[in-house]
Amino acid sequence: MPENSRQTTIIAAQVHETESWQAQLSNAITSAPDLLRELNIPQSYLEGALAGANEFAIRVPMAFVQRMEKGNIHDPLLRQVLPLAEETERPPKGFSLDPLAENTTNTHAGIIHKYNGRVLLITNGTCAVNCRYCFRRHFPYADNRLNTEEWDHALDYIRSRPDINEVILSGGDPLTNNDQRLFALISAIENIPHISRLRIHTRLPIVIPDRISQALVNRLANSSLTIVTVIHANHANEIDEHVANALQRLHSAGIHIFNQSVLLKGVNDNSGSLIALSERLFTCHVIPYYLHLLDPVVGAHHFDVNEETAQSLVTEILKHLPGFLVPKLVREIAGEASKTPVVHPISPN
Fold it and tell me: What is the reported pTM?
């Protein structure tokens, strides 16, 4: 093992041994100077980073930072979290503050109901990491910060709709809630007779794997609901030993695990990165699920990969991977009843 890799492993182990997941969440890097200093990035990038951070705050846990290559401004993990001056540019046509028109489906506080049979609960507005391409970077979380009474109203909405059989916990990130709050919410959902499945969309297993505690795993394993966890990783370098162990704990408890990725320019817009990610996920008992085209949110246009290039990439990875390891290439279109598959072009005979 190279010396710098061995040192990174030792430092990462020390973080995991000395800090709880709550402390890691609280101690995340939240300033551009600190992030650049930690990774030995030239100060010439500071002005752009500060400008981008004014548009959307920085938040990066140290457990994630420690997987980045120091001194490499092009590191695929760093690129996902480092603000750039491009975020402040005039956005191209078609980019908006609410690219999925969620404000029109957020008619009840804490609830987004846009698909048949399932409803999304905004559990909080907190994420462990602020991804620069986030489609909810302008979402009105302040209007969806619920007290106990408002939670009851949100749950009443679900109780009143027997056509709903699945609840999706989202945010923010639902696993940034403490166990007491999270477990109480799960119990309330379990008591709704027509709900059979609970889906948890989370990036915590990737960015702070210590969040997947034995207490959390036990609670999910003993639920009366079928539990599905959808994680979010875009590059194989995100999955180190600690992440793999967290995913193993979920898998051993019988919890279904899927991954959603976003196709991002400069991060994973090549077949080698996508193939490596699928292979790494599968070794950790995770099924590649969706590969999303970028949602056209203001501030993220520099990540955009056009549809033709995306189709070519999927065509290429199909040559190297079995079909079950090839994620579905999709685009989310506001108002549509589901994700929209991006169909591969049919070659003429």
Answer: 0.89
